[in-house]
Amino acid sequence: MVIECSSISLEGSAELRKLLAARKIEYLAAPVSGNAKVIKAGRLSFVCSGPKKAFDAALPYLRMIAPAASWVGDGELSRIVKICHNVFLGVVTQSLAEVTVLAQKAGVPRHAFLDFMNQSVMGSTFTRYKTPAFVNLDFKVTFTPYLLRKDLDLGLDAGRRFEVPMPLAAATRDLVQAMMGRGWTEEDFATLLLQQAQASGLALA
Q1: What is the rounded CA–CA span in Å between residue 80 and residue 155?
Q2: Cα separation of 167 and 58, whole Å?
Q3: 49 φ, ψ (degrees, to nearest 5)
Q4: Rounded CA separation 184/176 (Å)
Q5: Interacting residues of 47 by C-beta distance below 8 A, sequence separation 6+
Q6: Which of 51, 102, 108, 193 has the most CB atoms in a 10 Å sphere around its CB?
Q7: Cα distance between residue 185 and residue 54, in whole Å
Q8: Is the model's pLDDT at 66 over the cut of 90?
Q9: How far apart are CA 94 and CA 158, in angstroms?
């Protein structure tokens, strides 16, 4: 059995499945959610697709690595789930940057606004996780703009394939591209906050 854990296209994953099937090797597509900090915190998760029998056989080993593993169906369905996950990551981060800058320009300190958000119904594991970067302007890389752009492109390609309009994803992709055009490519994609602040005439400190 091969268990493949990266974020690749639907087509690439299907091609790999075909090559392995010709050699009678079972294949489980199992991309993960979580960066190095998430792994250290013991909160990595797998999303898997392929034969259910293969998933059941692999599950004890997956759980040695991560506490959560979901099976979403046959074939390459886990790839579309991971692509949707990372598109949402980009859109949510851009949205959080916009409202944070709006609140600060109106006079609310970033830390106070984000503290409220994190305790409200709109708070989430992700907003709480990203708050230190937004408050302290600490953009030590967890996920580069290059990687986010790749996943947004994969999401938009999937949208075209399945005839699903994705206007927010498209706008976010353009904003990530604009950020990269400024040379912001090696820090964390949370530099979307800096771009939003500059576009709003706000200097962050």
Answers
A1: 8
A2: 38
A3: -145, 155
A4: 9
A5: 30, 31, 32, 33, 69, 70, 72, 78, 81, 82, 85
A6: 193
A7: 39
A8: yes
A9: 21
